[in-house]
Amino acid sequence: xxxxxxxxxxxxxxxxxxxxxxxxxxxxxxxxxxxxxxxxxxxxxxxxxxxxxxxxxxxxxxxxxxxxxxxxxxxxxxxxxxxxxxxxxxxxxxxxxxxxxxxxxxxxxxxxxxxxxxxxxxxxxxxxxxxxxxxxxxxxxxxxxxxxxxxxxxxxxxxxxxxxxxxxxxxxxxxxxxxxxxxxxxxxxxxxxxxxxxxxxxxxxxxxxxxxxxxxxxxxxxxxxxxxxxxxxxxxxxxxxxxxxxxxxxxxxxxxxxxxxxxxxxxxxxxxxxxxxxxxxxxxxxxxxxxxxxxxxxxxxxxxxxxxxxxxxxxxxxxxxxxxxxxxxxxxxxxxxxxxxxxxxxxxxxxxxxxxxxxxxxxxxxxxxxxxxxxxxxxxxxxxxxxxxxxxxxxxxxxxxxxxxxxxxxxxxxxxxxxxxxxxxxxxxxxxxxxxxxxxxxxxxxxxxxxxxxxxxxxxxxxxxxxxxxxxxxxxxxxxxxxxxxxxxxxxxxxxxxxxxxxxxxxxxxxxxxxxxxxxxxxxxxxxxxxxxxxxxxxxxxxxxxxxxxxxxxxxxxxxxxxxxx
Length: 566
Fold this sequence. Notes:
Blueprint: H1 2-20, H2 39-47, H3 66-79, H4 104-112, H5 136-146, H6 167-175, H7 195-209, E1 238-241, H8 247-255, E2 262-265, E3 268-271, E4 276-278, E5 288-292, E6 299-302, E7 309-311, E8 316-321, E9 324-326, E10 333-336, E11 339-344, E12 347-349, E13 358-369, E14 372-374, E15 392-398, E16 400-403, E17 406-410, E18 415-418, E19 421-427, E20 430-434, E21 443-446, H9 451-454, E22 461-467, E23 470-472, E24 479-482, E25 484-490, E26 493-495, E27 502-505, E28 513-520, E29 523-525, E30 535-537, E31 541-548, E32 551-552, H10 555-559, E33 564-565
Parallel strand pairs: 1-2, 2-5, 3-6, 4-7, 5-8, 6-9, 7-10, 8-11, 9-12, 10-13, 11-13, 12-14, 13-15, 13-16, 14-17, 15-18, 16-19, 17-20, 18-21, 19-22, 20-23, 21-24, 22-25, 23-26, 24-27, 25-28, 26-29, 27-30, 28-31, 29-32, 30-33
Helix pairs in contact: 2-7, 3-4, 3-5, 5-6
């Protein structure tokens, strides 16, 4: 009888999981344009129920997590007959994937195929790290194990050492036409695999195993480069600019840019007499890229008495790469009313009076990656360190990621996501060295936004993930939460901060509270706080708080099961 009840319960749970992760319908992705190089692969996987829509989007340029890859790997392997239908198990395969986690059935299959965790036993902390992004090398190994393919030989890519553990996987995948690398001749094994790249690789591998050929795309792109144009489009142009050509040459190159153009700025300083306005639109398959030609930070843009680089008025699919931008009269970089904008490998600093280093508002699909931001501008007529603007300011910005950046030397908040911002991931950043005299925590989830800018949204921030960050050496607390909902704060390190570590504060949203907050797996060491918990509620309502599995050198505060209150 007991066995029958357990079996029935497990079957019900499996049905719920499959329902939750089933596709809405094939081809129902608002962010997959008709000319996108990856459309044919995404459509194919969607039609077979391997991928599904999230808010009617596919998010092709977003890195894929290890849990997401587990699902598509197992589901696709089942489609081509390599795997039986995954069965629910009451045995936990990895310490950080609970039996009731939706990914449990998939990672259990991967374990059976030879995918291992970080340590030899669960007691020793064997982890699958389901929420971490998977690298391109890791993804190939996992997929090769699922598809019963063998690593062979050694890769010849210049950025893949022949002795590296992944060299054979990359070589075999290249030989079979699964991948070809990037247009610059590299493979980037430690770069994160995007969801678009995943769709191409999975589709090709299914074609190699199954009887059908892989779909023939029109146009046909480079398998792993989202910047490669189609044969039916004009050829990509590389436009070289030097400082000696003057400011107008830079403006002309940008104003005349077409989808697929790469504007290469030679080393030197480009001085602006006014803001550099950019309203150009690339496409998903042919973004417009403005890049430092001679290495990161070699090309420097400075001098505008107004804002520095202003990207707006419908600008889309545009990338700033490797630039140093600094010394402006207002915001150093401003992104507004734009979408699918990437700022990567950029060093931006020294904003002007009342200016943010990077300001983003009314935008979506913004990626801030591997960059350095410091020294925002001071608010005029306001004495003290508490009167500084932010290094990174997200207002009403959705479906975006802030990843692997360093924010330092700021007077108050390093940054926040507010104004109704939704679906934002903040991860692997270092937020450090807040100046003395600050009056707000170093980072804010939510904030205080004028009511007309909230446009009817009930919360300042919704569905925010704050994980794997380091917050250290900050003078007025570490993290503030202002009228936010559905927030996960996990696996961060709080080191040598002063004041309240996580503080719930009032924002300006109609909800007038924060709700559904999970704080788990964080480490707190060397902090100086008068609180008896890692969190504190200041004149604010909080509902739905989960505190668990936090650790640190102050055992009393990490063991607390609730926040202190005023």
